Amino acid sequence: MARILLIAALCLFVCPAWGQELKPLNPALIDSKWQAAWIACPDAPQKDTGIFYFRKEITLPSVPAHFWVHVSADNRFLLHVNGQYAGEGPARGDLFHWRFETIDLAPMLRPGKNVLAATVWNFGTRAPVAQMSNRSGFMLQGDTKAEAIADTDASWQVKQEHGRGLAATNGLSGYYAAGPGERVDGRATTWDWDAPSVADAGAWHAAEVIGHAAMREAQDADNNWELVEDRLPPMEHRLVEAGKPVRVDGLAATPAFPAQPLEIPANRHVTLLLDNSVLQTAYPDLTISGGRDAEIRLTYAEALYDAQGNKGNRNEIAGRHIEGLSDEFISDGRERRSFQPLWWRTWRYLQIEVTTKSTPLRMETLNAWFNAYPFVEKASIAGDIPDLQKLWDTGWRTARLCAHETYMDAPYWEQLQYVGDTRIQALISYAMTGDSRLARQAITNIEASIIPEGITQSRYPSRLPQFIPPFSLLWVDMLHDYWMYVNDEPLVRETLPRTRGVIDWYASHLRPDGLMGRVKWWEFGDWTSGYVDGNPPQEADGGSTFLTLQFIEALRDAGELERQYGSRERADSYQAMMEKASDALNRLSWDVRYGVYADTPAKKSYSQQANVLAVWQDVAPLAAQKAILQRTLAAQEGKDAVLDGKTVPPMSAMSYYFRFYLSRALEHASLADLYVGQLTPWYDMLKLGLTTWAEKPEPTRSDCHAWSASPNYDLLTVVTGIHPDAPGFSKVRIEPHLGRLHELHASMPHAGGAIETAYKRDESGWTATVTLPEGLSGRLIWQEHEYPLQAGTQTLRLPTAIAALDKSR
Asked: Fewer Cβ atoms within 10 A, N terminus or C terminus of the chain?
């Protein structure tokens, strides 16, 4: 066929597989070895880079109502049926949790001969860090005897693709952990791999059987893939624009491409820069005709760079150049050849460089097929917060681009599921979509990373182990968050015992005085100048205020879970550790001179982060919490500040990431009316032309980092005030903090329906209208008064207190 692989080129029709319901697995497949085999290409690399085509013809007397199959591969597969896209995967995991996808092939089948075809690839040592692997292989198992005709075995044919490979380098400086650029030579590519018949039948061979497929529950599997079912829905794929031309070199005028085809003469070098106006994650799909031997390079970037290597305003183009990941293609000169990479790309700016040889080339079309987890935005907000819609849309875009088969810290640079990022991402998902499936899989993924010492890895799946012990504590907190938002007691009960190793590992590192001692590996707290490489200050034997406070938070959350489902003795021991650590912080780290907590008992440095956590975790006395936070907000890096005539020492400033915890502390200390005034860093990013939230203040590596999207969650919880008030969101607490607003409307999804709030202020006070779904009750808290809420719509008159607000400022 005229197109080379991937999804987008063959998804110009409505693909039934995208809307499928998840099918329950046939019980007969759970405890037994499967009849299907893992198969591979004989005399081909097992672990090195390799791209392979598998195909089998099956004959059916008629089209069944359903034809369910379970499919997996190492590293990945793309499955076609009769030339049509059927599915892809598998979702990433480790060898002990190797996922398979369940796909109904019936919508693509027809009476008579049918061709099942798959592209399988292994990027070897250059695979993304998130990609774990055993060796190249493919597996397809029919769900019942009716589908067994499709099972993988030696009757499948296989061919190695020699026309596709990897680009020589990734073209990037700095830490890069995502997938490599690709190089496709159309002159050597197999174009008919999924066609009814192939031109080079002699180049296809019987597949080699390398072991029988089996689920984890089965015994004595003869390979390393312990199969588990992927319970996530298929990723979203929809047609979007790739960008509009903003600069051209090598032509007399800027062309209309991709809106119209573009003819490039022979022996010409042309560079065309496209601006998509917003960042996106998508499969680019370039269709060309003619131009044999022409070389085409696509370069993808989040932003352009000036001569000094700075990004500056992301909207500026003049005097700037592109740097980024590139794919390379060579034309075979035939008509309507479509080129696209095996993995989606991330870009706002896309540069196309074409070098033609002796014949002209015609660029026919350039499409982009958006790819991300299929979250549906169900929350909404409107009100008189400046640029509220821009803030909201930018945060939502950030959250979406950082969620695929796993959550990701950044869709361009790393594509890794870090716990510190994922905790915030999961909360955004609960509040904005009500979809907890990706969060559930994240919790179990991170659980699978636990090492014998008892702690989790910092990110998972990952073929490169990395340990940030504080992220193990955040995984405990993440389970508690899930417990509060999601009615899934079985998962909480099953996972709770695994949290004990994390707590015990940390408890073994406590100093005799109750503060945290030094631990191994990377003790990341925040990106800030006072935390070298992100590490909070410590003394020779530890004593970090920050790390002790993070341990206290995990003890608190784990203790609540233990009292509900586990060991009361453990809960009591956790409480005793909390009290001892809190007492030590107040005796040793509290600096009476300044009225704030120091980073260590030596009192040589101070940070906003430590004081935020001290307030949020109630280590700071209740009566002092407002003053501590006010001093923390007044603090500056590098010099003293003055508040109410009292000196505030220099403090390490919070990054975007840690402002999530500031929001929790403001709410806890009854200062959340100040929240909207804390959005300045996000307004500053909008002024820089960012269309997603950056990793940290300039200069930043990543222009899209999920942990910076917390304002979407904060606006719904801190400002609008909607919180779960009992596990499983079985009750609701609505405690708005409206500051100087005059009107605010918001909606948050709930398992029973939408929770809707509307607030409007006039001269005499506020009117609050709250609508709760059937079966949900709760309470509204306003200025220390509590009002009961029931299912249905209720309108309340609330007093205003402008004088008190002015005083708090």
From this structure: C
Lowest mean pLDDT among 133-142, 400-409, 483-492, 798-807: 798-807
What mean pLDDT comes out for the span 351-373? 97
Of 635, 629, 662, the residue nearest 650 (C-alpha): 635
CB atoms < 10 A from the CB of 699, how many? 10
Average pLDDT over residues 301-316: 97
pLDDT at 644: 79
**For the residues 586-614, what does the mean pLDDT come to?**
97
Which among 765, 729, 767 has a CA at the least distance from the CA of 748? 729
Tell me how far CA of residue 138 lies from CA of 25, 292, 362, in angstroms.
20, 34, 37
Contacts of 168 (CB under 8 A, 6+ apart): 183
List the 792-798 sheet strands across, edge first: 380-383, 743-750, 753-762, 765-772, 792-798
Q: Which of 229, 230, 235 is nearest to 18 (CA)?
A: 235
Confidence of residue 219 (pLDDT cuts 50, 70, 90): low
> pLDDT-derived band of residue 21, with 50, 70 and 90 as boundaries?
low
Mention every residue, 6+ apart, whose C-beta is less than 8 A from residue 124.
Answer: 45, 47, 48, 49, 50
Cis amide leading into 258 (omega within 30): yes
| Cα 584 to Cα 116, 450, 535, 541, 556, distances in angstroms | 66, 30, 21, 15, 17
Cβ contact 441:518 at 8 Å? no
Single-letter amino acid code for the residue at 352: I
| Strand stretches in 205-268, DSSP E | 205-206, 208-214, 227-229, 236-240, 244-249, 262-264
Q: Report residue 697 CA to chain centroid gap.
A: 20
* Cα Dmax for the chain: 89
Task: Identify which of 411, 534, 558, 547 has the alpha carbon closest to the alpha carbon of residue 478.
Answer: 558
Dihedral Cα 574, 579, 585, 586, nearest 10 deg: 170
CA angle 302, 306, 309 (to 5 degrees): 75
What is the pLDDT confidence band of residue 752, given thresholds at 50, 70 and 90?
A: very high
Helix (H, G, I), strand (E, B) or coil at 315: coil
DSSP-derived secondary structure for 56-81:
EEEEESS--S--EEEEEEESEEEEEE
User: What are the pLDDT digits (tens) for 764-794?
Assistant: 899 999 999 999 999 999 988 999 999 999 9
In three-state secondary structure terms, 267 is: coil
Distance from C-alpha of 580 to C-alpha of 591, rounded to nearest angstrom: 18
Q: Beginning with the edge strand found earlier in the chain, give each strand of the sheet holding 777-782 in spatial order.
A: 722-724, 731-734, 777-782, 785-789
Q: To 10 degrees, what angle do helices 388-401 and 680-687 make?
A: 80
pLDDT of residue 15: 34
**To 5 degrees, how large is the angle CA 160–CA 163–CA 167?**
115
Provide the residue type at 798 as one letter: L
Q: What are phi and psi of 677, to 5 degrees?
A: -70, -10
Backbone phi, psi, residue 588, to 5°: -105, -35
> What is the end-to-end Cα distance of the chain in Å, rounded?
68
Query: What would the pLDDT profile of 37-91 be if each residue is shown by its tens digit?
Result: 999 999 999 999 999 999 999 999 999 999 999 999 999 999 999 999 999 999 9
The rounded distance, in Å, linking the Cα atoms of 285 and 11 is: 11
Residue 757's DSSP bridge partners are: 746, 770
Give the pLDDT of residue 766: 95
Quick one: pLDDT at residue 801? 57
Q: How do residues 159-178 score in pLDDT, each as one tens digit?
A: 999 999 999 988 888 899 99
